[in-house]
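Operator note (shift B, R.M.): manual run for MTD2L cyclohydrolase requested after the automated queue skipped it. Running by hand, logging everything below so the morning shift can see what happened. Input copied straight from the record, untouched. If output looks odd, do not overwrite the archive copy; leave it for review.
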Amino acid sequence: AAAAGGFSSSSALRSGLAPLRRWRTLRLPASPAAYSTSSSPRSADSDEANVISGTKLAKEVLKEVRRDVESWVSLGNKRPHLTVILVGDNPASHIYVRNKIKAAGAVGISSEIILRPEDVSQEELLDITAKLNKDPRVSGLLVQLPLP
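Run finished. Output pasted below as returned.
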């Protein structure tokens, strides 16, 4: 699907576009004597703790990826499409797939789920993946693990 669809990864998505912002990493002091014995994270420039909101950071990253997807599409490229193959009735796998589909939609990536029963043969599953790999509409293919 990558070669046929012209889209292979998030780096391809940003090809020709400004790269995603890189989050600044915390620099530690060069001297071991400068390290604090406190268990709180400290910045290199002050004695104050850095509070990091994972929720806020995740929202910012999602907004940025969505902008990149829309820029990609506005340049005349096909909208990225994720196909997920889900085999069996594992409740956790259904939740994981639902969350992946929701996240894809949140950033503007279209998606679909192909459900197969627990007793699907390995040969049939390989045939499905081979066909999807040749489908120019599919940018990414995920077989949800564990398989029964």
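Quick read of the result: Residues 54-74 form the longest helix (21 residues). The beta strands are 81-87, 110-116, 140-143.
Leaving this for review. - R.M.
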